[in-house]
Amino acid sequence: MALGTLLTLLDDIATVLDDVSVMTKVAVKKTAGVLGDDLAVNAEKVLGVRPERELAVVWAVAKGSFRNKLILVPAAMLISFFVPSLITPLLVCGGLYLCFEGAEKILHSVGGVHTEGELRAVADRLAGSPEDLVAFERDKIAGAIRTDFILSAEIIVLTLGVVEAEQLLIQLLVLSGIATLMTIGVYGLVAAIVKIDDAGLLLMRRSGNTGGSRSLRALGRGMLWFAPRLMKALTVVGTLAMFLVGGGILLHANHALAILVESWSLGLRPIEWTVPMAVGGVLGLIAGVILVKVWDALSHLLPGQRAK
Hints:
mainly alpha
């Protein structure tokens, strides 16, 4: 009897773990776009920090990210248990925010928001006293943690949308697993990205005329060439992901439009999966531009409230 009970318990545990594994894979796919943006944004946040302090800053932001998720995961569970009807509105709000952020990046980069004066101000702070450098670093960390909170909230809400029909235990395990994996993955990659140029410089300083030494110096030059281009590529991919993910959320929230788009795509095999993605991306771009224009208009009525 005891053996049968133990085997039943083990079978139940295996079933739960299998469900968690499946749901986690689905959640990773759903949140991949936000993760691309999260990676790009956090890598950009570390730019301008002294090279010897880059890893310390990444670690400080990663700890802040874990604290954010310790708040967000229980909050998501409470929403799922008490007011599950809020999940879709929260998803839509997260999607609209993604579209807004993406459009703001594009419109402000075209408008030349980062002027020479702003860049000179950053350079002056880096050349200032040790107290100025500490304050600059503290500001960087605080800003990155605030940004992480917003992006983490979007990841958690998207994940909650995937597991909302599952048992509470599975919801908790999937949310906790995604939160942990994403934090380790994102900040591990950020740490690697910001040190690519340092690793390249180290390799370029290798002495010797052997074939191996020359190859390492050539590898170092390649890494220095690659590092800034990787940052630019991450920024582009992250911005595109904002529109695809945010617009996709808006598309699926409009059930009638989603069905119409799906019917259009049926005759385009084997590329029918690109139609909802493209429509979602266009929808996200349009929504984002509208939101930025509305926010810009409101910001003129509320001085000092301009988004950074």
